[in-house]
Amino acid sequence: MDSGMIGKIDKAKRYAEERERISFKSFGVTFRGDNNTHATQFQDGKWDCTCDFFKTRGTCGHTMAMEIILEGMLPADEKSQA
Question: Which of 21, 26, 37, 56 is 20 to 30 A distant from 3 in Cα terms?
């Protein structure tokens, strides 16, 4: 492995440890639930999910799971917004 690649690997490890450097703007995930598969998205500081519970409550187990997974990586004012 060349020295340039070694430097990039070291940098990647440091960035991964310094999560405050990362700001999510948008992303989407798929949850394979017990009954159905649901698409969950985060865009422009707001969550969306295709499940019926989200449609009536503006939050759901899928969006809450993502908040737990990403704890500390989303600004507080961007959590649980419908």
Answer: 21
